[in-house]
Amino acid sequence: MVSFRFPFSFSQPPRATSLSGFSVSAVAVSVTVGAAAAAGAAIAASRNPRHPILEWAFSSHRSSLLLPWGSITLADSTSESVVEPKTGFSFPASIGDSRRLLGVGLRKKSLLGLKNIDVYAFGVYADCDDVKKLVGEKYANLPASEIRGNKSFLDDLMQADIKMTIRLQIVYGKLSIRSVRSAFQESVGNRLKKFGGLDNDQLLLSFTSLFKDEYNIPRNSTIDLTKEPGHVLSVAIEGDHVGSVKSQLLCRSILDLYIGEEPFDKNAREDFLDNVASLAFDN
Ligand code: DAO
Ligand code: DAO
Fold first, then answer.
1. Sequence-ordered alpha helix ranges (H) in 98-247
2. Which ligand is the nearest neighbour of the Cα of 263?
3. Is 223's C-beta closer than 6 angstroms to any atom of ligand 2?
4. Which of 222, 108, 231 is nearest to 164 (CA)?
5. What pLDDT is recorded for position 79?
6. Cα–Cα distance, 18 to 129 (Å, whole number)
7. CA 225 to ligand 2 centroid distance, Å
8. What distance in Å separates the CA atoms of residue 30 and residue 95, rounded to the nearest whole number?
9. What is the per-residue pLDDT for 49?
């Protein structure tokens, strides 16, 4: 049974803001489900020191939270979600059969150096079976305390054949496809250079040509960037597949934006590192 850490607070009920430093084990939980919680508790992931820091524990069938007035066990993982605290956007704790949410964050962009806009909230998901397989094959002898932040483990996560999804939820309401293309050329273009050298124009173009001018991505749109088996990067908008590109370099470059050394959101990366390490040693 895996225990994931999200420093978080309950968005409901507001009484939760009086909490601090609780630790929960999924085994040691009794069931006291309040009406609001039963409807599907939303958990606000936060490193904001004003918010309580708790430990979140769940298995694939049960989510458990210990609160001062009782504890909560949710019936199944489909009702679990984690809220990105700065935007309030909510991410399901798992997608598909085995991809688990390991970190949430916010992508900002500076406009002409004048103001920062919140562009999208994101969630980082990794396939727990693939992660465990990698650990079994290569890191079985490494103590749990050393796997967190281990550079070669992290490089392997970005380069091995591990199914991962980055889910984006659009916050900025005036995104044009043209600005998406140009932001992408800058952010992903830099990473392609970093990992693959200079001649990547064709690869970049093969991906940006998937973004058709007629697409509309208003606020609240969901875009999934999924690394499928065989290093195929596939894009879905609102669950509709819009195209795929097979390239290990492109997959690595995209993941590096979120979990590499200079990520869009440092807190998301820290949560990812904590959670992927606990996933690695979950039996
Ligand atoms: O010129 O209106 C503007 C600001 C546009 C900022 C665009 C940032 C795009 C970041 C990539 C979004 C991917 C969905
Ligand atoms: O934030 O700079 C960044 C990188 C964004 C990567 C995601 C771009 C994929 C967007 C597809 C939009 C299709 C209209």
1. 128-134, 144-147, 151-159, 177-196, 201-208
2. 2
3. yes
4. 231
5. 61
6. 37
7. 8
8. 26
9. 34
User: Residue 149: its pLDDT value, please?
Assistant: 80
Query: What is the distance in A from the centroid of ligand 1 to the CA of 177?
Result: 8
pLDDT of residue 262: 96
Provide the pLDDT for residue 283.
64
Ligand 1: which of 119, 171, 265 to mutate, judged by most atoms within 8 Å of the beta carbon?
A: 119
Residues 6+ apart with CB under 8 A from 177: 211, 212, 213, 215, 217
Which ligand 1 atom is nearest residue 111's CA? Answer: 4
- Identify the nearest ligand to the CA of 177 by its number: 2
Q: Is the CB of 19 under 6 A from ligand 1?
A: no
Please identify, by atom number, the ligand 2 atom nearest to the C-alpha of residue 254: 6
pLDDT value at residue 279? 87
Give residue 113's pLDDT.
84
Grouping H, G, I as helix, E, B as strand and the rest as coil, residue 15 is helix
Q: Which of 190, 179, 172, 232 is nearest to 207 (CA)?
A: 232
Distance from the alpha carbon of residue 170 to the mean position of ligand 1, in angstroms: 10
The ranges of the chain with pLDDT < 50 are 8-77
Q: Decide: 281 in ligand 2 pocket, CB within 6 A.
A: no
The candidate with the shortest Cα–Cα distance to 155, out of 255, 281, 278, is 255
Please give the angle made by the CA atoms of 227, 152 and 4, to the nearest 5 degrees. 65
For strand 42-45 and strand 81-83, is the pairing parallel, antiparallel, or unpaired? parallel
Taking only the tens place, the pLDDT of each residue in 91-121 is 999 999 899 999 999 999 998 888 999 999 9
Query: How does pLDDT run across 19-43, given as a tens digit for each residue?
Result: 222 222 333 333 333 333 333 334 4
C-alpha of 65 from chain center: 21
